Amino acid sequence: MAGVRTGAAPPFDKRAVRRAFSRAAAGYEAAAVLQDRVGAQLIERLDLVKLAPQWILDVGSGTGLGARRLNARYPRARVLAVDLAAGMLREARRRKRWRQRQHYCQGDAESLPLQSGSMDLIYANMTVQWCNDLDQALREFARVLRPGGLLMFSTLGPDTLRELRRAFAAVDQGAHVSPFLDMHDIGDALVRQGFEMPVLDVEHYQLTYPSLEALLRDLRAVGATNALQARARGLLTPRRLECLRAAYAEFGVEERLPATYEVVYGHAWGAGPRQERLADGAVAVPLGRLGRR
Fold first, then answer.
1. What is the mean pLDDT of each run of 10 residues along the chain (293 residues)?
2. From CA 71, how far away is CA 83, in angstroms rounded?
3. How far is the C-alpha of 36 from the C-alpha of 220, rounded, in Å?
4. pTM higher than 0.90 for the full model?
5. Do strands 257-269 and 145-156 pair parallel, antiparallel, or not at all (unpaired)?
6. CA 15 to CA 22: how far, in whole Å?
7. Is 219 exposed, middle or buried, given 0-12, 13-18 or 19+ CB atoms closer than 10 A?
8. What is 14-162+179-211+259-273's CATH number, 2.30.110.10, 3.90.226.10, 3.40.50.150, 3.30.2420.10?
């Protein structure tokens, strides 16, 4: 599992990300305890703003839990669920509630196949840490958000999986868990892309596991596998796995192993599209056609 960087070589193999999340789709909601809790808190923060959106974009929608909650909150709105993984979108369609106004589109947050100025609210729960270029993703958000529209998002900060990162460092120098961006860097990126009145804050969560294997299974179950371009191919050898287990055991408390997550919450207001042209190869989808096959 790795973090997003700005202005550097692409850290992620997007094909590997797509495969991992498609494989995880069927059991994702049962395993995504933290993502569920963070997403629910993100929607609760909408209590602080007065908004009556007609179109909502759920970026990195996964199995559609956030889209269903948004539709319940704004029953007159149309929710467009966009995800990189086709398997996630299939599961979202299967779980869609009767009469909810939802549409689905496979796409990348860094190259959204949507018209400029078409969305009133963008919701991105635990999504942008999977982008290769945070500035590019925010540029796309700013482009598709109408003037005065709202971006609500959550992502992961640099303390995330610090125990796993340190345990791997005791085993080898390979790329296993890369750094996540600091909250201040995210705020700077929002300003660079023209967002107004950005507000960010951080909360820390800690999950505990009976074993290292249980933690690794949990990460695989939510699609959070190592998709770094520089990752080592192949499985951990028994010897290296034993070294990793011993290194991680140093963090144990009362026979439980902790996994720390630093969650950055943020929102900002759109000042209008700054880039009228879509990225090369992207196709703009007229919103009026989404209701028809």
1. 49 86 94 96 94 96 96 95 96 88 94 96 96 95 96 96 91 73 95 96 96 93 72 68 92 93 96 48 43 33
2. 17
3. 16
4. no
5. antiparallel
6. 11
7. buried
8. 3.40.50.150
